[in-house]
Amino acid sequence: xxxxxxxxxxxWGAATAFTxxxxxxxxxxxxxxxxxxxxxxxxALAAAPGGRPATAVAGSEAQSAxxxxxxxxxxxxxTTLLGLVLLFGGIVLRGIAAGRWPxxxxxxxxxxxxxxxxxxxxxxxRRRVIAFVGVVVMGIAVLALVLALNAFYIQADQVQPALxxxxxxxxxxxxxxxxxxxxxxFATSVLxxxxxxxxxxxxxxxxxxxxxxxxxxxxDRFRRWVGGPRFGWLEQVPGSRELEALSxxxxxxxxxxxxxxxxxxxxxxxxxxxxxxxxxxxxVGTFVAWVVYAAYLHARTTRGWNGRRASYFVFVxxxxxxxxxxxxxxxxxxxxxxxxx
Amino acid sequence: xxxxxxEGLSDVFxxxxxxxxAAPPTLPTLxxxxxxxxxxxxxxxxxxALLLLMLLAVAAVPGTxxxxxxxxxxxxxxxxxxxxxxGPWLDxxxxxxxxxxxxxxxxxxxxxxxxxxxxxxxxxVHLAGVRGRPPRAPRRFARFPAQGSGLVDGPPxxxxxxxxxxxxxxxxxxxxxxxxxxxxxxxxxxxxxxxxERGYLRETGNLVFHLALVGLLLSVATGQVLHYRGQAxxxxxxxxxxxxxxxxxxxxxxxxxxxxxxxxxxxxxxFESRFDPDTLQSRDFxxxxxxxxxxxxxxxxxIKVNHPLDAGGAKVYLQGNGYAPDITVRDASGxxxxxxxxxFLPQDEVYTSRGVVKVPDVSGDQEQIGLVGYLLPTVDVRxxxxxxxxxxxxxxxxxxxxxxxxxxGNLGLDTGVPQNVYELDEARMTQLMEDDDKPVTxxxxxxxxxxxxxxxxxxxxxxxPRYVALDLRHDPALPFVLVFSLLAFAGxxxxxxxxxxxxxxxxxxxxxxxxxxxxxxxxxxxxxxDVGLQPELDRVLAQVLARTADRPPVAPRxxxxxxATP
Lengths: 341, 566
Ligand code: HEM
Hints:
heterodimer; A: 341 residues; mainly alpha; 11 helices; B: 4 domains; five-stranded antiparallel β-sheet; 28 strands; disordered C terminus; Cyt_c_bgen_Ccs1/CcsB/ResB (chain B); transmembrane (chain B)
């Protein structure tokens, strides 16, 4: 067996470990949802007279949140760590097999990106497991790894002259790291939005007068749905403000790295192609993602846009980041067609 | 001083610490000036900045959907032929020149106007703030996100001294830089309030970031008008001079002056290429050149992909390479009609290279000849039902061969219309055929001479030198572009990660059984989400209390504070 084959085997191992982790997180989430659904009637009753949603309290001191499965969380944690170790080994062996830094094609991007995303996930979950974020990030991680192994895979090999540069480490490595962090931030923002809708819906249960007279819009129906028993598990997650703060911190770090990617890419393009900016499709994609995240940071501090509305920019931004990695590499012709697919 | 802030900015640090008396709503003064003022405030508002940012993101997308002239003129032409109805409309609306279109430019220019209109007043306010005192302590601390309290022996004045010392104490690794700017105010009745603020860097970083973006835009624009760029194909053993006429294509900015072309010369001595023996993918290209700057000795240099050569204030890039078969064609009378290397363009990874040789008539009343075909660096001949098929199997010139079709007629060289040297204008030419109606195919190896059909003459394949495609670019604004990018990056990182905090301590003389002691209450406020705020407040409070407790009593306590609190 060659080093390259061993690397692939380790990556398959990591994909398997992450799949187990995904299942464990899902079981944890299902358990929480299950219990929460049973508890909802009492909770609603208890909250009614106080006028203050019980959610805020339950959310902020959730260590003892009932319904979580310690066993599932333990399994999730350990398989996540195992997967990280295997994936790390796979990446290192890949680099050895190719005789260079392993970030030169889509297969390798995906491995490293998944590694960073899961690493950040473990750091974020170090004190407290948020099952939902685990499910989303692990879901993306497993999907990406399987896609990488089946669709993006190419033999470990050296690279063409244009890629022989330390910028392969700086520019590409930083871009992938940023993508990994954006992934966890995205999952956090999804949860934040759900949680925020739920908080709003619960407040309306307490003070229904607010909506009287207003025609039930689509967002209202969604709010009522999220406020219903099906989403009872949302009581167990941190409050939306806390999640917003977490998502912002992650996004801020990733955005700074993305800025570095943009600058590094321009410097490299200046060396390799004789111009620092040429509106190549990949450059455009990176630029658009940057502008969208800049808009997100602005929205956070714009009255009327902060909170839930700002996090919609995170969804758009993350979508652009993913499209820039997949669609632009595969479909659009350009100077960045190194994907090898 | 009026506090300026962009319309719609929500920022706890700009809210007054106490609720101001409600100002009567002011209607915009009618008239031109009033409207202009109103429009300006809208343009520089956060909401419009947000809108323009989103528009910019959306407007950049079409450039990846439709082919762009700046990158690929041929693709645009093809699109226009394929879409005769929609194509011209898209063209009129600028969809093939998105990044220089009116609408794209309008968006980013408006954005930058908004940015300047927003940032300059903020810079002024910030500079005033940096020179001023930290804001006075609010009357009530209850609504602040971080709070604390304590009780300590000693009068408020002592505690205040200790608080100032603790807050001014620098970081351990930067002992001379105070962490907080501190101010104490006597609030009467023996009560002392300590205000402290840190993190002016955060706002500074934000302003530097935005201003650097303006600098970046200006640098890029300057480079655009001053730059020049030329492309030249240089065959091994030959050279070129840095002069406009020596380039195959030359492009310049509107304010370009020919004096920025330093007249150096460059000769290609040798070209090396390395390919992976199994996959045949390229691994390394190196051009060995001799550079002669005006008035200097020639020096040997190398140019590689990723490693351009600096020459005469410009950079020379290795953009491409290939083979330029050196051919001599003699006409029927034995006169040399054509001689020299002709660059053939590689079409694939094994350097199957296509080229055209145009042989003009030299000795009167003879037809002109066009040779069209391929150079195969390592030829592989396979017999098929239709005759031999030639293909290249390796990019290295192990067994090169020229495979050419022959045309005869008028090349159209004297029509005055500029010709593409890589294409044959077949309009007034006919291809020569064998008797069995198959096209004539000449196959020549280096050193060989073959007869042209119909006694038109001979063709000799002398040699197979390499050529490089060089791209030369001069952009005097490059250092500025780099500096402003890095400034923007540094400013951004600072503004996102430097904590901006305000701490207040109110030191009130104790009463009754606490007489002679000081009641300390504290509050903290941070810009944005700041998980470190409460821990910081706790640390400061603990240090102040410990410090005062350890202090030997210097003044008789009791009386002073006793008098102050009746
Ligand atoms: C080229 C256009 C612009 C870009 C790319 C941009 C980008 C950014 C980014 C990335 C941030 C977050 C980093 C930080 O907090 O310092 C930010 C913050 C900010 N921007 Fe901009 N900006 C632009 C234009 C504007 C304009 C036109 C305004 C004014 C209307 C503005 C006002 C602000 C303010 C007030 C903040 C600070 C928000 C806060 O953290 O409190 N920006 N900008």
